[in-house]
Amino acid sequence: MLVNSANDVNGSVTKLFQLAHIVHGSAVILNNARQTSQALPLLDPFSVADISSRGMISQSMIDLIITHEAFKLFRTTDNILSIAEIYFRTMHSCLPFISKEVFYGRVGGIWTQPKGDFALLVICMHTLPQTFINGITEAVKSPVYALAKSMLSLIESANILTLEIVQSRLLVCLYEMGHAIQPAAFLSVSIAARGGVTLGIHKSCAQQTLSNHKNWQNYEEEKRVWWAIFILHTYINLLAGSCHFVTEDPSVNDQLPVDDELWQMNIVSDQPSLSLLTPTNIRVGPFARAVQVTHILRRVLTHVLKVTADPIFNADEAQQLDDTLKAFAALLPEQLSQSSTRFCGALGICTSQRWGIAALYLGYLQDISSTA
After folding, report:
1. Which among 349, 343, 93 is positioned nearest to 234, based on CA atoms?
2. Which DSSP letter does residue 201 get?
3. Could you tell me if 97 and 167 are in contact, meaning their C-beta atoms sit under 8 angstroms apart?
4. Omega into 183 within 30° of 0, i.e. cis?
5. What residues form DSSP beta bridges with 275?
6. Which of 251, 259, 156, 274 is nearest to 203 (CA)?
7. Which helix H or strand E contains 174, and what residues bound it?
8. Per-residue pLDDT tens digits for 94-124
9. Structure confidence by residue, pLDDT tens digits, 280-323
10. What is the pTM of this model?
11. What is the distance of C-alpha 243 from the center of its chain?
12. How far apart are CA 51 and CA 99, in angstroms?
């Protein structure tokens, strides 16, 4: 077990805001893992509020605090690599919004070049494989989950916002969704959405990915983070039976994620990016297909929860949605057989929506008959 004890991590959460080290000039925050294991000085007599009001929380301090907590949790780079291997083998195959190439390229310097946002990303990644006997009660009390939430609050209170922080929020949201921790999951994805808008990553879907774009890997990652927010936010609204979206509906011309395998291998396609309205007969990757089906899901939610007074219009729209779902439903089983389980999410969303639309359509026909 990577954590020495629950008391150790819980104790670090309690003292999180007290652990700090102010770096001046060319002083190095953290030279190696051995230095990290040494006790850090306490900032007495200042309280957390005092530190904030005096402007003493710097990014260097935040980097040190979170990296120190990550070291206490993982101890070695090998342990981090083990966690990453589990993540990229499981959750990543369903919702690929973290670049493997970028992630593994940064792991080697996690202790020598500490960055709080990256250390936070690793900690949040570690929350996902946890399982509990007592369900939600034990999941809420998880020391790793408590640590992740505390450090998210810490780094955000220091007015720091990066793509890694938004990704960390999404990982925590996935943990909360998996353990039915509500309304925390809704709040997490909503904060991630606001953070994404602040960073401007929502605009990445509206632009063509150029094959000669020198930062196309990062550009594609931003696009995938935004689409992941879109998927999770829509799904949480489905569970809540609502359509209160904090993000705008995507444009039909917004660009889908590129093929997952090409992205992972860092291969730039010479083909133009495909839009949200790409026909079902054109091959797209599993994540892109999940985006398309989720877009239909959002339309279904709006259709169901914001019914107009015109039964004929309602019936026509229901028929149109059902026809679209039929096209996906006919295609996805074939793609599923070719790509193992990677299309399971899209197929599940599509099938569940068809049952709902079918029931509504019958109701609309009855309304039309009664008014005829």
Report:
1. 349
2. G
3. yes
4. yes
5. 255
6. 251
7. helix 163-178
8. 899 999 999 999 999 999 999 999 999 999 9
9. 788 888 899 889 888 888 888 888 888 788 888 888 888 888 78
10. 0.78
11. 19
12. 35
